[in-house]
Design a protein that fits this description.
Layout (H helix, E strand, L loop, with lengths): L1 H20 L3 H13 L1 H12 L6 H23 L12 H9 L4 E10 H14 L4 E6 L6 H15 L3 E6 L9 H9 L3 E4 L15 E2 L3 E4 L3 E5 L17 E2 L1 E6 L3 H16 L17 E8 L7 H12 L3 E5 L3 E2 L2 H12 L3 E7 L5 H16 L3 E5 L3 E2 L3 E4 L3 E5 L3 E2 H6 E9 L1 H15 L2 E3 L2 H5 L3 H11 L6
Parallel strand pairs: 2-3, 3-4, 5-19, 8-15, 11-13, 12-18, 13-14
Antiparallel strand pairs: 1-9, 1-10, 2-6, 6-7, 7-9, 10-19, 11-16, 14-20, 16-17, 17-19
Helix pairs in contact: 1-2, 1-3, 2-3, 5-10, 6-7, 7-8, 10-11, 12-16
Length: 468
């Protein structure tokens, strides 16, 4: 009897925490009811999977903002001439900049990198050019052929006097052997886990993951996109087969946005401030305007979801989106329907088969209503589509780490680069059209012809949408 009362007391206290912290009304109701009705099951589940706010990181960010304010103010003054005129006017661009807490910056060279060979060739060449430092951050790091190639190059640069800092997510890279890190440490290169379970409130949680993929060289060149460090990302895993992905190389002032994102994460992981140790160049290297938008569970607003809503709502002629996992929240789903209803060409590309059957099933539950609004949905059949990119009209293209799902919008640390440039938008559109040649359209007849059990599994998977 005493154990029963204690369990319900803990469940009640946990339900108060859920009431004050869970972001959606549906999630709050589900957790409050289950924590009070069946606490023995719900309490451990809540503290492992239930929260959408990353405790501790918010306070750390405020402290970092305060300590870095003089430095950032000085850099902001130097960057002011690089802010293009369109970014100073009210509208969609201003909304994106306020979400990013950074301005669009002109004067950038941008290179679209299609698939693993081009991406890693560019990243490794860039690291080879490093003179002062290299910042590396990946969700997954494997001790395989490409992983060892990256490690050996970083060891070589560290021994040549280049400072190397390497962040990884301990959940995504859970099978990385200690020897990998030890070889870097022996060369005085720092490789540390992000620390998603640091802090008393995060000790048992598994929800929050640092999903960012960032490389910065000397503050002058940066890379961001969908590829992690593993042979499967180059199509070398026969069990997975061909891998379709996209990365982006940026050279110029906008690299500072990637660098600031890394600085914040490194400060959380190690407690170290890097402002005075890094270079903050603002020299123009090209002509393109870029906005770097970090997002994560410590944000005041749901930055990832709002970024996609803003992109969809701003489209006048077309919005084409590619994503490996499509489990959107209601706001993004509504924005897609409205865009199609007002005559925008809305196209969605997803994998014919992903690496997560539950996500595939949940994704199917959204497709029939989309088709009903006139949205075109395609399944990519040329391999596993892992690319996360979009194009708006003939003016904006975006490449990043965020999927169109609740996990990326609310639970993961992500980063997206938005390029406001007609030529770049054309390049992304051409890439999308090339992928369409290896895709098949999803039809209403196909979806309505599914068996009862497949439809039931899809609807059941839909219930897990908030954590997929």
């Amino acid at each position: 009897m005493l154990a029963f009362l204690v369990a319900h007391a803990i469940g009640f206290v946990s339900s108060l925490h859920a009431l004050m912290s869970v972001r959606t009304a549906q999630g709050t109701i589900a957790w409050v009811v289950s924590l009070n009705a069946m606490p023995l099951v719900a309490v451990p589940a809540y503290w492992v999977f239930g929260r959408s706010r990353f405790e501790g990181f918010v306070l750390q960010r405020r402290s970092l903002d305060s300590l870095g304010e003089p430095h950032e103010s000085a850099v902001a003054r130097r960057l002011a001439p690089m802010v293009p005129d369109f970014a100073r006017a009210p509208g969609a661009s201003l909304a994106g900049q306020r979400l990013a807490k950074l301005p669009y910056l002109g004067g950038n060279e941008v290179e679209l990198l299609v698939d693993g060979e081009a991406t890693f060739r560019s990243i490794l060449a860039g690291i080879g050019r490093a003179r002062r430092y290299v910042l590396v951050q990946f969700y997954i790091v494997r001790d395989d052929r490409i992983g060892r190639e990256l490690r050996d190059l970083l060891v070589e640069k560290a021994r040549a006097g280049v400072t190397v800092r390497f962040l990884y997510d301990e959940l995504g890279s859970g099978d990385l052997p200690r020897g990998y890190r030890q070889q870097l440490a022996a060369a005085s290169a720092r490789m540390v886990p992000f620390g998603a379970t640091r802090g008393p409130g995060n000790r048992f949680q598994l929800n929050f993951r640092n999903h960012r993929k960032i490389v910065v060289v000397d503050g002058e060149e940066g890379w961001v996109g969908g590829l992690n460090v593993g042979d499967e990302y180059l199509g070398r895993d026969p069990a997975i087969g061909a891998w379709r992905d996209t990365h982006l190389r940026i050279a110029g002032p906008a690299v500072l946005g990637l660098q600031l994102s890394f600085v914040e994460d490194w400060n959380w992981a190690t407690g170290e401030l890097l402002f005075d140790e890094l270079a903050w160049p603002v020299d123009a290297r090209g002509e393109r305007a870029v906005l770097v938008v970090p997002s994560g569970p410590a944000d005041r607003l749901e930055t990832g979801s709002l970024l996609y809503q803003q992109a969809i709502q701003s489209a006048q002629r077309r919005i084409w989106i590619a994503t490996p996992y499509f489990v959107p929240d209601g706001a993004v789903l509504g924005a897609l329907h409205l865009a199609a209803l007002r005559g925008v060409d809305v196209r969605l590309m997803i994998p014919a088969r992903s690496d997560n059957r539950l996500v595939d099933a949940a994704s199917e539950s959204f497709l029939e209503p989309l088709l009903g609004s006139g949205i075109h949905v395609y399944r990519y059949e040329g391999g596993f589509l892992h690319s996360k990119h979009f194009v708006i009209d003939d003016r904006v293209g975006g490449v990043g780490t965020a999927n169109v799902d609740n996990r990326s919008f609310r639970l993961n640390f992500e980063v997206t680069a938005v390029v406001a440039d007609s030529r770049f938008a054309g390049e992304v559109a051409a890439m999308f059209e090339s992928d369409l040649a290896r895709s098949s359209p999803v039809s209403a007849e196909e979806l309505s012809g599914r068996s009862f059990w497949r439809r039931a599994f899809s609807r059941g998977a839909h219930l897990f949408s908030p954590v997929l």
